[in-house]
Specification:
The complex is a heterodimer of chains A (255) and B (283). Chain A contains 9 helices and 9 strands. Chain A has 255 residues and is α/β, with parallel strands linked by helices. Chain A has a 6-stranded mixed β-sheet, sandwiched between helices. In chain A, strand 1 and strand 2 form a beta hairpin. The radius of gyration of chain A is 18 Å and the shape is globular. The termini of chain A are far apart. By secondary structure, chain B is mainly α. Chain B contains 13 helices and no strands. In chain B, helix 2 runs antiparallel to helix 10 and helix 7 runs antiparallel to helix 10. Chain B is globular and about 55 Å long. Classes of the chains: A alpha/beta (255), B mainly alpha (283). Chains A and B meet through helix 3 of A and helix 8, helix 9 and helix 12 of B.
């Protein structure tokens, strides 16, 4: 086993039509890291994610995923888009959604193979959704849908799991449950979560990547109210008590 | 009804009509399902109307320049495929201009068709059958072409089911899995174009959209997966085209219009039934 980083960004900059979105970003994420990418809206989170997926090319600098360019290692990434990206009324059942994760592995013609079905079932099992495999995707609750989309990403048999706001619009209890799932997954693969809520996820992740044009990486222990207000550029009361930090933080970003 | 059945054994044009309706329904159920879930029925509408340009041009070349091998249906295939490729490329390259381009192709196709037909002596009456369909005029030669198109559409539409499903559901994810999303999107539009041509012979240019969406919309109420939707909407479409043909035959109504009225009425009934059922269920 080599110890090369899973994600490596060297002096990466990106601009849309001359407007800089990210500047001189350096980042290294290793195997079995569980990292969250946080920052204000428009701060460059989504841009960073799209650079990692190879959907955007950096204006300057180098992006390496598993040691190579993202476009060539894409099939080793499991990706889960934001929930608003998927039409919840689409007539499709759970199994068929998860099977989409097998597209890179299966043949071009005809139906999926048996090996694909087994991989999809294993992914459903891992997310505790096996019993739902014949259900209509539209009949699921928000939290169940998110789990199915994570299962779809797992069906890719990825080495790196990228999730874009997996818990947006979910209530706190379900959010906790989902992060516990991801925490377990980070035992065997690298997990990167884009999220709006640093205080909460810092209980689970081992590093927080703060994106606001520049990128600052904090080990979880450093994430205090001070850091948070620095990221979001809003003054806020610093409350050291864990639970209250979360609340103050949530208030800060929702306002 | 009885008259239809006795005449059916006697007249080949009725047999052609019946077979055309069934063939069209299969393509309609499979491709229409993709069109509805991908929400591109407006694109299908643009393609359908541009078909008149191809039909008019083919008719003109046939009658005025003596290209007797060239049938309006050939022109229709060419125009539909050309429109599909243009709309597809524009929507992939410049998303914000998509609706403008569809509208332009829609109108220009019609205009070109009308001009050609106006310059073709003695054939203005054909316009009615292009616009509103005349399933009773399908010749044996047409039927072979329609059958060929149908086989192509059904084979490709089912062979690439998993790719089309992935592209319709979440094209970004499909791209990340290494799928050539642009290719499958253009292929889907081309299959839509061919389906539109087949449907034009049944219900005419103006009413294609109804047949391409109403049976699928009804099927959507009862289906959990695309496959179910395809099967149910194919059966419904066969029901509508066949009963449209049978019911219109005796009193000599236009069969295309009869088919669409049946499909529309069925859709309204299902929507109403649903609404009443829901109100009852909630009180």
């Amino acid at each position: 086993m080599s110890t090369e980083p899973v994600i490596e960004l060297i002096e990466v900059s990106f601009s849309y039509d001359g407007v800089p979105v990210l500047e001189k970003v350096n980042l290294e994420v290793g195997k079995q890291d569980f990292v969250s990418i946080v920052g204000p809206n428009g701060g460059g989170k989504t841009t960073l994610l799209r650079l990692l997926l190879g959907l955007l090319r950096p204006s300057a600098g180098t992006v390496r995923i598993l040691g190579k360019s993202p476009a060539t290692t894409r099939h080793r990434i499991g990706y889960m888009p934001q929930h608003a990206h998927v039409d919840p009324q689409f007539p499709v059942n759970v199994m068929d959604v998860v099977l989409m994760g097998r597209l890179g592995h299966t043949g071009a013609f005809g139906p999926y193979r048996r090996a694909d079905r087994e991989a999809a079932l294993a992914a459903l099992e891992e997310m505790g959704m096996t019993a739902f495999r014949r259900r209509a995707f539209s009949a699921l609750s928000g939290g169940q849908r998110q789990r199915v989309l994570i299962a779809r990403a797992l069906a890719c048999e990825p080495e790196l799991l990228l999730l874009d706001e997996p818990t947006a619009s979910l209530d706190q209890a379900i959010e906790t449950e989902l992060y516990e799932h991801l925490y377990r997954l980070s035992d065997r693969l690298t997990v990167v979560v884009v999220c709006h809520d640093v205080g909460f996820v810092s209980k689970f992740v081992n590093r927080v990547v703060c994106v606001k044009r520049h990128v600052v990486v904090h080990p979880t222990s450093e994430v205090t109210g001070e850091v948070i207000s620095e990221i979001y550029g809003a003054p806020m009361k610093i409350v050291r008590h864990d639970h209250e930090t979360v609340e103050a933080f949530n208030k800060c970003i929702s306002s | 009804m009885y008259q239809f059945l006795t005449d059916l054994q006697q007249f080949s044009f009725l047999q052609h009509a019946l077979i055309t309706g069934i063939l069209a329904s299969v393509a309609c159920g499979i491709i229409g399902t993709y069109v509805v879930v991908r929400r591109i029925s407006y694109i299908a509408g643009g393609i359908a109307h541009s078909v008149l340009g191809g039909m008019g041009a083919a008719l003109y070349l046939n009658k005025v320049h003596g290209l007797t091998w060239l049938a309006p249906l050939h022109g229709a295939v060419a125009a539909a495929l050309a429109s599909a490729v243009i709309i597809g490329v524009v929507s992939l390259r410049a998303k914000q201009r998509e609706d403008t381009v569809i509208g332009a192709i829609w109108a220009i196709g019609m205009a070109v068709g009308i001009l050609f037909i106006a310059r073709t002596p003695g054939y203005t009456s054909d316009v009615m059958s292009y616009l509103f369909g005349n399933i009773l005029m399908v010749s044996a030669r047409d039927l072979w072409l329609i059958g060929g198109l149908d086989v192509a559409v059904v084979l490709l539409g089912t062979a690439f089911y998993k790719q089309f499903l992935a592209v319709c559901f979440d094209d970004e994810f499909a791209r990340l899995r290494g799928l050539k999303v642009e290719f499958y999107y253009l292929l889907l539009l081309c299959l839509t174009a061919l389906t539109v041509v087949v449907l034009v012979t049944v219900v005419g240019i103006v009413m294609v959209i109804a047949l391409l969406t109403l049976p699928i919309a009804i099927a959507g109420f009862f289906s959990r997966t695309l496959v179910q939707m395809m099967i149910v909407s194919t059966l419904l479409s066969i029901l509508f085209t066949t009963s449209g043909l049978v019911l219109s035959y005796g009193p000599d109504y236009p069969s295309g219009a009869t088919t669409i009225v049946l499909a529309g009425a069925a859709y309204l009934l299902v929507v109403l039934g649903r609404a009443i059922f829901d109100i009852r269920g909630h009180t």
